[in-house]
User: Fold Pantothenate kinase from Trujillonella endophytica.
Amino acid sequence: MSGVTAGTRAISPYAVFDRASWRALAAGSALPLDERELASLKSLGDRIDLDEVATVYLPLAGLLNLHVEASRGLWEARNRFLGDASAKVPYVIAVAGSVAVGKSTTARLLQTLLAAGPGAPRVDLVTTDGFLLPNAVLEARGLLGRKGFPESYDRRALIRFLSEVKSGRGRVSAPLYSHSSYDVVDDATQDVDRPDILVLEGLNVLQAGRRADGRAPEVFLSDFFDFSVYVDAAESDIQEWYVERFLALRRTAFADTSAYFHRFADLSDEQARQTALEIWRSVNVPNLRENIVPTRSRARAVLQKAADHSVRRVLLRKI
Ligand SMILES: Nc1ncnc2c1ncn2[C@@H]1O[C@H](COP(=O)(O)OP(=O)(O)O)[C@@H](O)[C@H]1O
Ligand SMILES: CC(C)(COP(=O)(O)O)[C@@H](O)C(=O)NCCC(=O)O
Assistant:
């Protein structure tokens, strides 16, 4: 945990919860999903059961419900003060972390748990991969091997999307990405129409961003976040999950002849392991070290996962 030592007393911006104390925060709350629904939410390779949902994700959703309700209360008070009658804009929750760390499962679980919360809010989920530049553009710019790095996204479009959602605009379109074709999908979009809550999931959501002239941008993506969650794990564990997932994808998604990775479908176990390690080491590790881990301290909550995917500790920023 990041902390500063002052004299003999360690001070830290986080309140730290072990599994037992975190789980106790949702004692008495019913789990609004069963094994079948959980199976439909979890990503390939993620190990998660209902007990883990009750221990980690239910208390997190409970805390987020409090934040969402408090934000609504503040909005109403503000409207009364200003004599303004504008509608509440979506509450935005960012989910960040490495490739293969389990962001998608976390984001989908939060979506489901929050939607079952007080007042049954409408919760939309958008992933930032839709804002990746098309492969043709990445190739022309020599960036195909940098997919997931900040420069591989249309960050302006992402900021525009979020600023429109946060301005209360209806039917804002987000582009979509296909892991199968390994490219953004032509002419397919997802509409976000004033949900109560928007979960935005992606590698780089907590990044400050860079401008070509090196100056700091005036608007950061995080200016639009109400809360953020960083899914964290040891690099060696994430590497193992990435390789295992690659081996599993070889038997599933890669078997599709139209899949970009179909060329890897017939590799032997050892060849597939080496190929996965090569992609991991050349693309995902540098991105993790240079661009993702440095954003962890910006998150309001950090979920620290152990090698078996279970969350060992939850860190919550005190401010
Ligand atoms: N080549 C691929 N083919 C099909 N699905 C993939 C491929 N790579 C990743 N995925 C799926 O895409 C989703 C996002 O993966 P990723 O960005 O690594 O984030 P995370 O593992 O943190 O959710 C996961 O559900 C994963 O199983
Ligand atoms: C599509 C991704 C960049 C993730 O994008 P995100 O939704 O986090 O913005 C990532 O899953 C990816 O494909 N990385 C490229 C290297 C690799 O194939 O593992």
The pocket of adenosine-5'-diphosphate (ligand 1) is lined by residues 43-44, 97, 99-104, 179-180, 245, 249, 253, 261 (CB under 6 Å). The two ends are 16 Å apart (CA to CA).
